[in-house]
Here is the input.
Amino acid sequence: MNTVYIKGLRAQAVIGVYDWERLIRQPLVMDLEMASDTARAAATDAIADALDYAAISQQVIALVEGSEFQLLESLADAIATMVMREFGVPWLRLRLQPSEWPRRRTSALLSKRACRA
Here is the structure.
């Protein structure tokens, strides 16, 4: 199992608990680390056998830009759940941070592993 990274992914969302935050779209920056078995993709050199990080990026951006969560933690959980479910990622770590809060050191960091039944 290897790790695939997507770093510096940007999207805008309505996020926050204050009234003024509900009226604007705020820029967010995301870093994802995802477990992936890359052996088959390496052997075949076929994109069909690889984790499609372009598709993951597009779907994450679509989810974020269509969302209106109050908490970064809720948005982070929604992103992680979607990536794991839609792309078969067994484990991921996500860092989600508003990009224009220079005086605040606010971010949500979420690590998630698939549950075994």
Observations:
- The mean pLDDT is 88.
- The beta strands are 2-13, 26-36, 91-98, 108-113.
- The domain at 2-112 is CATH 3.30.1130.10 (GTP Cyclohydrolase I, domain 2).
